[in-house]
Design goal:
175 residues; alpha/beta; 6-stranded mixed sheet; 6 helices
Length: 175
């Protein structure tokens, strides 16, 4: 088993963190993983993306030319990467910021109003965690309880944000 994921959006949307959550979840599952970030010189508002490869075997390269999953958090990212997704793959679209529809018919597309769900969870900054929940459910690669444990561990130094992040994950997972 090997799964390749590209996550892309604006800096400040938690794109790199989302990739890290997937990578840490893979480690928690005892799998091999690479996480390769890429971002512009701006801290917030610039473009950023990351590539995550999860495998049962040692990962030969972190470079992804044809991902199984694309998580597009903004419109420029959708247009930059959508044609690279392998036929039969999946594109998760942050419909809160992307009103456009994907025209490809050879991939599954999920339109998620991540911002609305993040607000429902109690913290508007948890849109990336909503998308994490969607990805975890759709991929079927990870034990949900182990991912929740990763979220709790990652936010252990900020315990006040854990409940909103858990709720955001659960809302995404329920889709």
């Amino acid at each position: 088993m090997e799964e390749k994921i590209i996550i892309a959006g604006f800096g400040g949307q938690g794109v790199l963190s989302l990739g890290q959550f997937i990578a840490y979840s893979a480690i928690e599952e005892g799998r091999e993983v690479t996480w390769l970030p890429s971002y512009g010189p701006e801290m917030r508002g610039g473009t950023s993306n990351c590539s995550v490869v999860v495998s049962d075997l040692q990962v030969a390269s972190p470079i992804i030319s044809s991902p199984d999953f694309l998580i597009a958090m903004n419109k420029p990212s959708l247009y930059k990467f959508q044609m690279k997704v392998r036929p039969g793959g999946c594109i998760i679209v942050n419909a809160s910021l992307i009103p456009d529809k994907v025209e490809r018919t050879d991939v599954r597309v999920l339109y998620i109003n991540a911002q609305d769900l993040a607000i429902e969870a109690g913290n508007s900054r948890t849109a990336n965690i909503v998308i994490l929940g969607v990805y975890i459910k759709q991929s079927g690669l990870f034990d949900k309880e182990k991912v929740l444990h990763v979220i709790e561990k990652k936010f252990a130094s900020k315990p006040k944000v854990i409940p909103a992040n858990i709720k955001a994950f659960e809302l995404g997972y329920a889709i």
